[in-house]
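ok trying this again, last paste got cut off
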Amino acid sequence: MRINSLKLSPDRAGRYWVTFEDDSRLGLYRQTVEDFGLYTGMELSDDQLEALKTAAGQMSAKMRAVRIVSASSVSKRDLEHRLVRKGEDPEQAKAAVEWMEELHLVNDRNTAEQVVHSCISKGYGLQRAKQALYEKQIPKRYWEEALADYPDQSDKIEAFLLSRLDADSDEKEKKKAIDALLRRGHSYGTIRRVLNGLSFDTDDYYEEF
């Protein structure tokens, strides 16, 4: 297969586009272009072309993995699933995750700690933190350690309630505030205790869910 053209400058994603004699195109990163010594007019055997496509797929998965990890905290499982959803070959996605792990760029224990820290800083309750760990597909063997020192969130619950309610707030407004806190992962019992401490009437509410 003959290379009809090779772009000398990368696109916004850092890829150099190769156009073959059958008008098919392949986006390559610089390392792959250099590894194969590609140039316009170069003739590739079937084996060389296949090797080039494999290398292109491997590098694509790696570069996409780097971009994903740079943008957010992810677990190994979550990263692999995201790569596949973005169109990467499943085997190459798995290999890319293993490569990232070898470089210490993805670590489930560290990700679990980062997710929990983020939940704490946002004033989320313990249940919301557990939900976040589940959504990030963190293996459960890391949950206990990450959640071990989860702080009491009463102060943040109080600040939230004071920002929403006052002495003149009606039952509808109180219920709306409670529902918002429940969605943030706080327990009903803790919310009720904080409400009592603020002298808001909670006699009409259940003791616990």
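PB: full thing came through this time. The longest helix spans residues 46-71.
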